[in-house]
Design brief:
Two copies of one chain form a homodimer.
Chain A lengths: L7 H8 L3 H8 L7 H13 L6 H8 L4 E6 L5 H16 L3 E6 L4 H11 L6 E4 L9 H8 L4 E4 L9 E5 L1 H14 L5 E6 L4 H16 L9 E4 L6 H12 L7 E4 L2 H13 L9 E5 L13 E4 L2 H17 L9 E4 L2 E3 L5
Parallel strand pairs in A: 1-2, 1-3, 3-4, 4-5, 5-11, 6-7, 6-8, 8-9, 9-10
Antiparallel strand pairs in A: 10-12
Helix pairs in contact in A: 1-2, 2-3, 5-12, 8-9, 10-11
Chain B binds a DNA duplex (30 and 30 nucleotides) through helix 2 and helix 4.
Chain lengths: 340, 340
DNA sequence: TATTTTAACGCAATCGTTCCCGACAACAAT
DNA sequence: ATTGTTGTCGGGAACGATTGCGTTAAAATA
């Protein structure tokens, strides 16, 4: 069942006017006399008229709604990003359609195909770890769908991008560990193919090199699903702990991995930071309350969401395809607490 | 700018057929010969035809999208609920439109009015703490919009409701504290007008009464915005700590309040549970890793989301207004850890 | 052979809005 | 008196998909 809506026709019939006049009055056209306009507006308010957005969308070829695809909503970083997106979107009369890829390329594609059925005016996406073939994304982009990448970008697609300064964040974190006297620093990274993972790896490597610490391959392990499952982090950590020269510090490459590592150390009763230090990317507010309070690299998630939506707005509202695209790099924050 | 979509007309023109035939072929009607059908299907796939959902919605008077209004996405409980909703929705071809009230009745109403512009087929809502006048909600409900309440319900509106067993959860938590030897148990509650707050208060009171512990009003404090701001929790806790007979245990009435209390105790260097025990409602995965690990009452958030969406589906898909509504009460889980 | 049935397709209206054209007054300018 | 102008309004065609009904030819039946 559905709600029976009142339409422009109802108004025009009641007031003995044409639908054109009513439509124009509601849109405050100058072609309508003030009296008629007032009459229509009053009556419309009285019967609680709301324009049918589907009809409007069909006519205007604009839905005033955007799609957002992230890997998981229940992830502090992404929920904060969405928060930022929503705040700008609702201010500008846009509805936000959210779907989750759950780090699965298949689900991502499904959502994408669904959202792009001439339904959304624009898309903000943070690609899943699995994504390797972005044919479809590229296709809709070339057909003219405005897209903004957030956090996890695809270099091959030229459009606006909003990312954190992953290189610098990783660099600062690693350098911090070095300054604290740690030398056997392991990296538990996200999927190697991810843009953020590459940048963070690079920051890690450069910091080590500058300190003349050799970068060892066996000190770098990967979680191909970004720590979505704890077991993934567990086996990554286990492989590190089996090493002949165990690490004395862990640098975790994502929110879920960071908390996963923490969980691992708790489970294994590894003392932090005495036996093993821990620092990682995380936007979870509770990291501060952990024992020990976690040192983290925090991304300006809310602001990144705002920036992405603002950029998307500019694309959607511009008449002609934009030529110049910008990549906004927002700086991360290093919060040093007790775990390092 | 927008993406130029391919329509049924493009197909019909190219193949020298009528739009009716094309439409019927795409919908696999028996009135179309197999050869023609195949021809159309092949060509449609070739040019990557996607039906225009706005046009479909206009024709069918169904948008196949639902609205979800919660107080905040970046709240583990709600993000898990949304997770559950989305999983069922996408399986059934529905798009989820999420908006946040941020515990503001004004924002809630804005979102509601926006979503209900003949745009959504159904609504799942967890009302904000501020909400007191639900006139508009009642109005759209009476006009026939299927609504399902989750977690925070409005008794006056008769429809499906999905809630956790708040009474029992609170009862069990309080009883647990009593069994552990605590007797001066304070309740830091959510806004008093909220259904969940009332039920939890009741569970708290009954448990105390059964143990012949008098219920004292000054041991019950309220956070009118559900702990949205830390300052709110802080002042609530401060008023408790100023009491002549301070509490020896805190029972926190919501996710944000629980973590807020924990934060307060850390800040004030109050030893948990020696000086003050803490238990509370929370769905945050990290509570386990806090020091001490928090005892919590956990709600089946994901399952609640699933249930809500399932109920909403049944309402949306039924031809006539439903008469019988159910209130699904899902049981909570008491996780006893070190904070009590 | 004449008539009915059936298969396969087209026509045109419809959903609710918007907007390009007019239409038709009243009035001003020539 | 004729022509222009302006201010208000209505007619009707879109937007893209769906669908009841009508049409036509071929096939089946009498």
């Amino acid at each position: 069942m559905k709600l029976s809506a009142v339409t422009i026709k109802d108004i025009s019939r009641e007031l003995n006017l044409s639908t054109s006049t009513v439509s124009r009055a509601l849109r405050d056209s100058h072609e309508i006399s003030i009296e008629t306009k007032q009459l229509i507006l009053d009556y419309a308010r009285k019967i609680n008229y709301k324009p049918n957005r589907n009809a409007q969308s069909l006519k205007e070829k604009k839905s005033h709604s955007i799609g957002v695809i992230v890997s998981e909503i229940a992830n502090s970083f992404f929920s904060q990003v969405i928060n930022g997106i929503e705040s700008i979107a609702s201010k500008n009369g846009y509805t936000v359609n959210i779907s989750q890829s759950m780090e699965s390329a298949e689900r991502e594609l499904m959502n994408l195909e669904y959202l792009t059925s001439s339904f959304i005016d624009g898309l903000i996406i943070s690609v899943s770890t699995e994504t390797k073939n972005h044919l479809y994304l590229k296709e809709v982009h070339e057909k003219g769908l405005p897209i903004v990448f957030v956090d996890r970008v695809i270099d091959e697609i030229e459009t606006h991008k909003v990312i954190a300064d992953n290189f610098k964040g990783a660099y600062k974190a690693t350098k911090h560990l070095i300054n604290k006297g740690y030398s056997k620093i392991a990296l538990v990274s996200n999927h190697a193919g991810l843009s953020i993972a590459k940048e963070r790896l690079e920051g890690y490597k450069v910091a080590l090199s500058e300190a003349k610490i050799p970068v060892k391959d066996n000190m770098i392990v990967f979680c191909d699903h970004g720590g979505m499952l704890y077991s993934e982090v567990e086996s990554a950590m286990n492989s590190l702990m089996r090493l002949r020269t165990k690490p004395d510090a862990i640098f975790a490459g994502s929110d879920k991995i960071t908390t996963g590592c923490m969980r691992f150390m708790k489970n294994k009763k590894i003392r932090v930071p005495e036996e093993l230090a821990l620092i990682g990317f995380s936007n979870n507010d509770l990291t501060e309350l952990l024992s020990p309070p976690l040192s983290v690299i925090k991304q300006p998630a809310f602001e990144m969401g705002e920036a992405a939506m603002t950029l998307l707005l500019s694309m959607m509202e511009s008449k002609r395809p934009q030529q110049k695209f910008e990549t906004r790099i927002q700086s991360t924050e290093l919060l040093i607490r007790k775990s390092t």
